[in-house]
Amino acid sequence: MRAIEPTLQGQYFGGYYTESDSTGDIHKFTYGLSQACERLGVRVLTGQEVARVASTGQAASVTLTNGDTVNADAVVVCAGVHSRTLGAQLGDRLNVYPVKGYSITVMLNDAQSQAAAPNVSLLDDETKLVTSRLGADRFRVAGTAEFNGINHDIRADRIRPLVNWVNQCFPGVSTRRVEPWAGLRPMMPNMMPRVGPGRLPNVFYNTGHGHLGWTLSAITAHQLAGHVDGWARQTQPVLHHAQLGRVTG
Length: 249
Description:
Blueprint: H1 26-39, E1 50-55, E2 60-64, E3 69-72, E4 74-78, H2 83-89, E5 97-107, H3 111-116, E6 123-124, E7 129-133, E8 138-146, H4 156-169, E9 178-187, E10 194-197, E11 203-207, H5 213-235, E12 244-248
Parallel strand pairs: 4-11, 4-12
Antiparallel strand pairs: 1-2, 2-3, 5-8, 5-9, 6-7, 7-8, 10-11
């Protein structure tokens, strides 16, 4: 462990090293993905809130809170913790519950902190914390699970243990500037995502990934594409370019 990550301090008995494992900046990834989709002709609406989604089985519509309506041949609901409400409007029951997780981003503003921060992604099994080095000047630490409904409040007593962990394991890193964050994981009771068709033939779901959203995103997107393609071939055997409305959180 010392040879792989020499910056780690403290008493440890051992660990596992997965050479193929990797982490990254999901904000950069999703932003780049949206740009790639736009280059392929996808219309992306940002900063919008969905008021209602409806389907007749042959056509679908998404009504925004500003009064605009997006009409489509089919709809995919991947709205995180809000998937339950939207699914109910479409006649489906999605037992999704928000589980709040916290993270801190330690800003490595000086050379000493940058040298003292780890480069290898770490998982502390005892404290259930995970870390990721995001470039030269950012170090992220995340963990905890809180059952508190749809609540985005950032509690100081949840952030403090994350900061203390950094001070203990990486004493050379300055925690003077720490940016706290809290997000809601869309959890299903069996911790498995809901991927596939709904009750109506032109309604699909890709949601409930819990704390493994980015990890499972590629394979579940591939699975979802198969479901949508099968529907399109059955309903539109000649025209394979169905308009798709995608509801995201």
